[in-house]
Structures are given as structure tokens and as C-alpha cells.
Specification:
heterodimer; A: mainly alpha; two-stranded antiparallel ribbon; 74% helix; B: alpha/beta; Rossmann fold; 2 domains; six-stranded mixed β-sheet; 9 helices; binds adenosine-5'-triphosphate; binds magnesium ion
Chain lengths: 307, 252
């Protein structure tokens, strides 16, 4: 996995001589990181957070606010994003996790909207105009203002998070959470402390999404309260659901599809929204395991285990 | 956590609105005893098990495992302190294989930080224990089968395997043979007789032959109250019991 990335990165960069393609690929990688993190909640725990845009925003503002105070050290940016998102999630998680289903969706949405209005009201941080970055994050010699550098960092982080979440899914904790998603009664009577596990996963998911947010700020050179608004959180959910929440790679497929269409379709026709909407509905309704599931089903059958 | 422990109920009361589902139940079940709980439908047997397991909180009374009061504890804490159970309607995890289910149960007590990355099925020793347990309950051939492909009886066997693999100190079995084929019931009865003395067991069962054969003592529950406790012979000859329960059995 890591190896193939290392091989892939230079090749891809070579092919992507067109700068807007590098930007698109970077956006796909960054939102894939956020979506994979979100899928730890949706896919593994069965908890749909409609507020993950807030953590993206926290990560993004960590960069822009520190930049205004003259701190351009990227490690400081990511640390701030991690700490602030971690604290926010540690406070919000236990509250939100008292609920599940629709109530969980609503509580997470409410917190993200609160943060959205908070940032709008804070004129020092640009209010509803947002903030342009004074500069980019410096990771040692690497300037994330450099398009290829940012792309490589994003892809490496994506690879690392994919690998870790693969490990997590096969771990005892991953199984425990999936067990609870299907049958809480059973999971608890085995002595699995599901609530504690969910609180931990909520914080980890928030922190990783915030780190994606810091990369996102560097990509856009701009941060706005809209990152915390519901359409952003909704896009992340859409990426997960479209790609397939059953697997670690699903969100990557979802991000590739969604962002490519949004990037290319407007050039093809001004009426791209209609077929696009229909396509999304069709995918969600027909492919139970998302696009990735549909792609895998195209492979010659024979893997099914019968007895 | 292994070992055996006694189970004591002190004056348990549970009300559902106006219904007295558990009516001042007191009993001490000794270490290693197989205590059968019988009584007509709706007598409050499952409700009693639910209170012992922590799923239902009693309105009055106390529950002790060994010397320790667990009355205020939740389901998870009780399970961790060595309480294992099966449900009247088997509660399983359909998308897992039987082996995954049993291994998860075995490892559930020790969720350290490594539990977040070490693969569930990565420990050969635990895999062997899990396979052996599946073998014991009669699912040795079906370790790779998804749970949703199991028959009703096999699910009950799996539930028992999930409970046994954790070496419970107290085991609560709510009608383990209900809905089983005659062959499966026989295996289960054989298994229960082998478990005697190895852990403290509360067994709810409608099959009187099995109960009379296996139980050290039998408690009879009617309308929430324990109306009789005694050996098989005591219960068979107790006029109160014959009137309220065994009589019905003979008619049907
Ligand atoms: N959650 C609940 N809310 C209200 N009433 C309940 C609840 N659970 C059980 N009851 C009632 O309490 C009584 C005892 O039910 P319980 O399930 O314990 O009986 P049981 O002895 O296990 O019967 P069965 O042999 O049918 O399993 C019944 O009248 C039942 O309707
Ligand atoms: Mg019952």
C-alpha cells in the first residue's frame, strides 16, 4: 500500500502536469482523509455525524489564525488542530453519544451550526468573509504552498490513515463496535464497554478530520465559516455513502467520483445538476455497498463462501 | 476472573406499572449449583434473569455475586465480573462468523490499547480455545459459517459457546433448548450435565424431564413470587406446585 503510493506519486505528478488536475487530486485526497475518518463513525459504529464539517473548520482555522500571529510552523498548525479538535470532541462526544440514530444526527448538526455562527460573528477572524491565509504551513523544508508538496503530503497521510483504519477494522475494537452496531444487547452482555469505545472513536475521527482541515486550508489558501456549515458535513456523508461505508476504501472511491463530477461536469453542460442528482439517487438505491461494492461485484464471481 | 461464585438475591421486587413481575424473591444459589427456575408463561422468569444480568434494575432488593453487591452495576460491569448469559430469543451478531463471535467474546474483557490495532483473529492460542469451545457445543464443523446462516438451534448453541468461552463464574441460561431439534436438545442436556459443578448456573427450562434430571435444586415461580424451592422430589410432590404449574403440564 505505502509502496504503491510511493511509486504512484511521482508518476501521477508527472501526468498531472496540468495544475488544476493536481489541485483536484489533492482535494480528493484531503476529503478522502476526512471521509475515511467520518466512516469510522458511520460504517463502524453506525453513527451518522452530520457535524464533521466543524472539525474540518477547526483544522482550517488553526492554520489561518496561527498564521495571523506569525506562526508558520506546520507542525504547530497540525498540533493546534489536533488539540483543539480533540478537546472539542472530548466535550461534545459524551453528550452526542447519549443519543443515536436521528437524534445523534441532529445533535452533531447543532454543534457544527453553532460553530458556524460563532465564526460568522467573530470579526477578528474575518466573520462571514472568512480569512485568506497569510502564508502556508511549513513542514521543515517543505512548504505546503507548493502544490506538489501539498499533494504528496496529503496522499501520504491518506495512505497512512487508510492503513490504520484497515488495521482498526480487523482489531478487537473494530469488531466490538460493529457487533454493537448490529446488536447492542449482545455486545454489552459480552462485557464490551461500547460507550467508552465510541467516545474514543469519536475523538479520533474528529482529530483526523481536523488534520484534513489544516491541509484543506493550505489547498484553498482560504478559510471560511462555511466549512462548518451543513452542506460541507453533508458532502462528507455523501462521499462515504456513495463510495460505500462497508469498507475502508469506499470513501476514496466516493471522493474520486463526487469531486471529479463536480469538477468536470459543469464544463460539459450547464444542466449537469439534473443527471448528477439522478445518478446519485440511482447509486444510493441500487448499490447497497456503494460504488466500491458495485465495482467489486463486477469482478468474476466465485469468492462467495458456501457450505 | 475464572472460578465459581455464589449468587444471592435478597428481597428483589420489580414492578411494570401495576404489574408485580418480581415479588420479593430471595434465594441463595451456592457455588457450582445448577439451579433451575420453572414456572408458567409470564411468571417472571426472564424478568428475574434480566435483573441479575443488569438489563433491568430492581425496584427493591439486592443482588450479590460472592460477597459483592452488584445491585447498582450496569450490564457491562456485571459481564466483566464474570456473569455470562444466553437469551430466550438468541441474540447473535449476524454478520460475523461463529468463530469471530466466540473469539470476540473471549477477548472482550481485555480491551487494552493493543485491542485497537492487533487483529481480532491474530492470536493462535485464543483461536484454538474458541474452536475447542465451538466443538464442545456442537458447532465444531461450522466455524467459518456466517451466523445468519445458522439454524435457530445452532444460534442457541453459539450463544452458549460465547458465554462459556469467557469462563463465567455465574451462567444464566434462559430456555436454552426452546426451539431446538430433539437431537440438539439432547446434546444441550448432555452439555449442561457436564457443566455441573464447573460454574454456578441458573437455568430456565420448560422441559421437566431435563429439569428434574439435571437440577440440584428447583425454584418455582408463579406471578413473580418464588412459591417453592427444593429438590426434584420435593417439587414433584409439592401440592402447591402441582396446582399452579405441573398440573397444567399434565393437561397439555
Ligand atoms: N418490559 C416490560 N414491560 C412491561 N411488562 C413486562 C416487561 N417485561 C415483561 N413484562 C411482563 O412481566 C411478566 C413476566 O414476564 P417474563 O418475560 O419475565 O415471563 P417469563 O416467565 O419469562 O415467561 P415465558 O415463559 O413466556 O418466557 C409478564 O406478564 C410480562 O408481560
Ligand atoms: Mg421468559
Amino acid at each position: 500500500m505505502i509502496l504503491s503510493t510511493c511509486v504512484l506519486v511521482p508518476t501521477v505528478c508527472f501526468w498531472f502536469d496540468a495544475p488544476h488536475l493536481v489541485t483536484l487530486a489533492t482535494r480528493i485526497a484531503i476529503l478522502s482523509i476526512a471521509a475515511i475518518s467520518l466512516n469510522l463513525l458511520i460504517g463502524t459504529c453506525g453513527l451518522v455525524s452530520f457535524g464533521h464539517g466543524m472539525y474540518l473548520a477547526i483544522g482550517a482555522y488553526s492554520v489561518s489564525i496561527l498564521q495571523t500571529t506569525g506562526v508558520d510552523n506546520g507542525f504547530a498548525h497540525f498540533s493546534a488542530a489536533t488539540v483543539v479538535a480533540g478537546i472539542a470532541a472530548a466535550l461534545i462526544g459524551p453528550l452526542a453519544l447519549r443519543t443515536s440514530g436521528i437524534a445523534f444526527i441532529m445533535v452533531t448538526l447543532a454543534f457544527a451550526q453553532m460553530f458556524f455562527y460563532l465564526m460568522i460573528s467573530l470579526r477578528v477572524f474575518g466573520g462571514d468573509d472568512g480569512m485568506s491565509l497569510a502564508g502556508h504551513s511549513l513542514l521543515g523544508p517543505l512548504d505546503l504552498g507548493n502544490r506538489l508538496g501539498l499533494f504528496e503530503v496529503s496522499v501520504l497521510l491518506l495512505a497512512a490513515i487508510t492503513a490504520l483504519s484497515q488495521l482498526f477494522n480487523r482489531s478487537t475494537a473494530g469488531y466490538a463496535l460493529r457487533a454493537a452496531r448490529q446488536n447492542v444487547r449482545r455486545a454489552e452482555s459480552l462485557g464490551l464497554d461500547i460507550h467508552r469505545l465510541r467516545r474514543i472513536v469519536y475523538v479520533v475521527s474528529a482529530v483526523l478530520t481536523a488534520d484534513a482541515g489544516s491541509l484543506f486550508a493550505n489547498l484553498n489558501s482560504y478559510v471560511s465559516p462555511s466549512y462548518s456549515a451543513w452542506p460541507m458535513s453533508g458532502d462528507l456523508i455523501l462521499i462515504v455513502v456513495l463510495g460505500g461505508m462497508g469498507s475502508v476504501f469506499g470513501p476514496i472511491v466516493g471522493a474520486i467520483f463526487l469531486l471529479s463530477v463536480e469538477s468536470f461536469a459543469p464544463g460539459l453542460s450547464e444542466h449537469w445538476m439534473l443527471p448528477y442528482g439522478i445518478a446519485i439517487v440511482w447509486i444510493v438505491m441500487t448499490a447497497r455497498h456503494g460504488l466500491l461494492g458495485a465495482l467489486l461485484a463486477l469482478r468474476p464471481a466465485g469468492k462467495e463462501r458456501r457450505q | 476472573m475464572s472460578g465459581i461464585a455464589s449468587l444471592e438475591l435478597r428481597g428483589l421486587v420489580k414492578r411494570f406499572g401495576g404489574l408485580l413481575a418480581t415479588d420479593h424473591v430471595s434465594v441463595t444459589i451456592a457455588e457450582g449449583e445448577l439451579f433451575a427456575l420453572i414456572g408458567p408463561n409470564g411468571a417472571g422468569k426472564s424478568t428475574l434473569i434480566g435483573q441479575i444480568a443488569g438489563e433491568l434494575m430492581p425496584d427493591e432488593g439486592e443482588i450479590l455475586i460472592g460477597d459483592q453487591s452488584i445491585t447498582g452495576w450496569g450490564v457491562v460491569a456485571r459481564a466483566r465480573s464474570g456473569l455470562g448469559r444466553t437469551f430466550q430469543i438468541a441474540q447473535t451478531i449476524d454478520a460475523f462468523t461463529t468463530l469471530e463471535s466466540v473469539v470476540l467474546s473471549r477477548r472482550s474483557g481485555s480491551l487494552s490499547p493493543t485491542g485497537f490495532f492487533a487483529p481480532l483473529l491474530g492470536d493462535k492460542e485464543i483461536l484454538d480455545i474458541a474452536r475447542e469451545t465451538l466443538n464442545v457445543v456442537g458447532l465444531g464443523e461450522l466455524t467459518q459459517l456466517r451466523v445468519d446462516r445458522l439454524s435457530h438451534g445452532e444460534r442457541k448453541q453459539l450463544e452458549l459457546a460465547m458465554a462459556l468461552v469467557r469462563q463465567p463464574r455465574v451462567l444464566l441460561l434462559d430456555e436454552p433448548m426452546a426451539g431446538m431439534s430433539p437431537g440438539e436438545s439432547e446434546t444441550m442436556a448432555q452439555l449442561l450435565s457436564e457443566l455441573r459443578g464447573k460454574c454456578t448456573i441458573v437455568l430456565i427450562e420448560h422441559d421437566m424431564d431435563v429439569v428434574f434430571k439435571l437440577a440440584d435444586r428447583i425454584g418455582v415461580l408463579a406471578s413473580g413470587a418464588l412459591i417453592a424451592i427444593g429438590s426434584a422430589d420435593d417439587i414433584r410432590n409439592n401440592p402447591l406446585v402441582r396446582a399452579s404449574y405441573l398440573g397444567e403440564e399434565e393437561i397439555t
